[in-house]
Amino acid sequence: VPVSGAAPLPVMQTYPVATSVPVSGSATSSGVSGTFSPAMGLPIWLRISGTWTGNVALERSDDDGVSWFAATLYTGDALAWAQNVNAPVTEETVSGAQYRLNMSVSSGTIVYEIRQ
């Protein structure tokens, strides 16, 4: 079919519906969140809210949760926050990878959600 106004080139990317189950909760003391198993190829969104002080680090495992390592940018900088955030933080391309939050809470309550 020739390209025309009625038959334009496809220029919009579409995404499949994520089948992953969000992980959410709150923390008033240091610890880790539940495990998030993402669908591949879709952005992973992190929401951290509440009134708190401390540090939240995203961790990743690719061996079914036996070992956990800091999730990092291409530069090697850890994905970690000391303030509220609501943003896409990474995208997964390895089947079976898992994520969790490692939270160090000095005061207050951290409310969190990892989803796609």
What does this structure look like?
The protein is built from no helices and 9 strands. By secondary structure, it is mainly beta. The strands form 2 sheets. Strands 2, 4, 5, 6 and 8 form a 5-stranded antiparallel β-sheet that branches. The protein has a 4-stranded antiparallel β-sheet with strand order 1-9-3-7, with no helix packed on it.
Features:
mainly beta; about 120 residues; 9 strands; elongated; five-stranded antiparallel sheet; four-stranded antiparallel sheet
**Fraction of residues in helix:** under 10%
Please mark out the parts with pLDDT under 50 across 5 or more consecutive residues, or reply none. Answer: none
DSSP summary, beta strand count: 9
Net shape: elongated
Strand content: 35-45%
Average pLDDT reading: 93
Classify the secondary structure makeup into a structural class.
Answer: mainly beta
First and last CA, distance:
36 Å
Task: Please give the radius of gyration in angstroms.
Answer: 18 Å
User: Biggest β-sheet: count, sense, barrel?
Assistant: 5 strands, antiparallel
* SSE string, helices as H and strands as E: EEEEEEEEE
Count the DSSP helices: 0
